[in-house]
Design a protein that fits this description.
The complex is a heterodimer of chains A (about 70) and B (about 180).
Chain A (H helix, E strand, L loop, with lengths): L6 H10 L12 H13 L3 H16 L3 H8 L1
Chain B lengths: L4 H8 L3 H23 L2 H17 L10 H18 L23 H12 L3 H12 L4 H8 L3 H21 L5
The chains are: A mainly alpha (about 70), B mainly alpha (about 180).
């Protein structure tokens, strides 16, 4: 990145925009583990939607209940 | 950082211990890369977790013959980019924040404010390219690898970012 035409813009940006601290001090693994646990115990929304759809179908067409039980 | 092939193989097969080992080795590197893009350590921590969450989900797609660090950096860049794309209320940076270098007395406070405003208004893709190329002075090839695009495309994004910045700064009364 050495285009001399960009030097003025580069200088302006460096003078104007706050440099973030890059110091990394704490271990993030406990947070990561929490995130993994949350996601693995939660039931995805589409599973609930599928369950709701099945319940509605069974309610509207109760004749399918014995058929379903037979297949289970 | 070279990783033992066996560790990468285990990670690719979904081994949680292998994932933890890679997480511990790369969390600092991923954090430092993200903070250079988003320039906020608090946000960068959250995005580091999000990055590793995506890495964990995508473990089966990881090729153990390739570099884990480069793959993680690519995912981190996309995660940071997604964050910058989200519309959020404008939060003005405090005026008393220190600048990167010794402040140039020739550049006034209100000019700095206008530069920040113009930079915030850039599209996220251009902002990331400009941040990495102009402020962080990363080599084009590294930016291209992190963004998953060609060097030519990076140059084009930087060129467009500079052109848009110049135009906006001109409108704001800042000579470039």
């Amino acid at each position: 990145m050495n285009d001399p035409n960009d030097d003025k813009i580069r200088k302006l940006l460096k003078q104007s925009i706050h440099p973030a601290s890059q110091e990394f001090e704490r271990d993030l693994w406990p947070q990561m583990l929490r995130r993994l646990e949350e996601r693995s115990t939660g039931v995805p929304w589409f599973d609930w939607a599928l369950l709701a759809l099945a319940a509605v179908c069974l309610f509207l067409v109760p004749d399918t209940i014995p058929l379903l039980l037979y297949h289970l | 950082m070279e990783q033992p092939a066996e560790l990468l193989q285990r990670f690719a097969h979904g081994d949680l211990e292998a994932f933890e080992s890679l997480f511990r080795q790369f969390q600092g590197e991923v954090f430092r890369w993200i903070v250079r893009i988003v320039r906020d350590p608090g946000v960068a921590e959250d995005l580091t977790i999000e990055t590793f969450w995506r890495i964990h989900r995508a473990h089966a797609r990881f090729d153990p013959d390739r570099s884990f660090g480069a793959w993680a950096r690519r995912i981190a860049t996309n995660t940071a980019l997604d964050h910058l794309k989200k519309p959020r209320p404008e939060v003005a940076l405090p005026d008393d924040l220190p600048a990167a270098a010794i402040p140039d007395p020739g550049i006034q406070q209100d000019v700095r404010k206008r530069v920040r405003q113009a930079f915030r208004e850039l599209p996220a893709k251009l902002r990331v390219a400009a941040t990495l190329a102009l402020m962080e002075e990363e080599p084009y090839q590294e930016i291209a690898d992190a963004l998953g695009i060609s060097v030519g495309a990076v140059k084009l994004r930087v060129f467009r970012a500079v052109r848009l910045l110049r135009k906006r700064l001109d409108q704001l009364g800042v000579k470039t």
